[in-house]
Write the structure tokens for this entry.
Amino acid sequence: MQLWLDVQDSDTPCQIDSTDFSSAIDIRFGDEITTDGKRLFDRDGNLIGAHFHIDDPDGQAAARSAVGSVNWLLVECRDWTLIPLENLIADAGGTPTSIAVRLDDSKLIPGAAFALDIGVDAILLGDEEELWQAAAICKSQRLERSDGFITHTETIEQGQLSPVMITAIEEGSTGDRVCVDFVALLNPGEGILVGSSSSMMVLVHGETIVSGYVPPRPFRVNAGAIHSYCMRADGKTCYLSEVSAGDELLVYNATGETRPMTVGRVKIENRPLLLLKMKDVNAHTASLYAQQAETVRLVSPSGIPLSITELKENDYILARVDTMGRHVGAEISAKVVER
């Protein structure tokens, strides 16, 4: 994490230069990096970033739209809250954009330095010793974390599914379950990913199979309990409670092939539920709440739809196992535990 000293309006020597904190200065803002209020430039006048003032949700949206298209994104808030900063850090993960924030209150520095257990890439500070003392401590703590942290390099492709074993099936009382109705027909073998944890989401098959009791609904997935995650077409997760007409979800088949599909309607009804508990080959565990109904089917590793009412302990089903944590649906490198 870099510390930037604001020297834009300084006609006299900065007091920080005469303190022990002078060695913590990485950038002199106003000299090595400048701003015109909207853009950031290096000393040679090259455009290197964008500058945003976030005072409302529209300001946040504008800043988030710049992530991925600039090297640096400097943000300031009139009434500072941490949530916009967390959202920007989550968005910037895996992109070339680094996040810098201007802070004028020493109490806010630790929150920015360790937001989402990741933190910003730079903090712009004024010429007050109290600010630099707090920032220098956080910078040192970040370096200690970096030295002791082993980067996890395993990656899982978006479409990759793997077998997970069912370890328990329990009655889950009743709850609100969600049926997702698409504006186009699902093919046999297709469904969507659903789970109580974003780290392990199960392939729930569409209602494309003929039953002797009810006609098929080849546009529908009886997805699961309302608290569950599902996968959007942009690769982010959302709760089933958030899905509505016009949204695009990612439809999967057993081979991991995907396609986006638009939601036409969502039906939420109170129904009896089953609780499925699962684990993968690395003993990572997760669960799924789904309606106790013969027409709700999961998918075996061989691609065969299996009715949830016929599943047993030690059966295997397909799921997407993810090693990344998520914040508001976006993947982040921080550790997130969901039980």
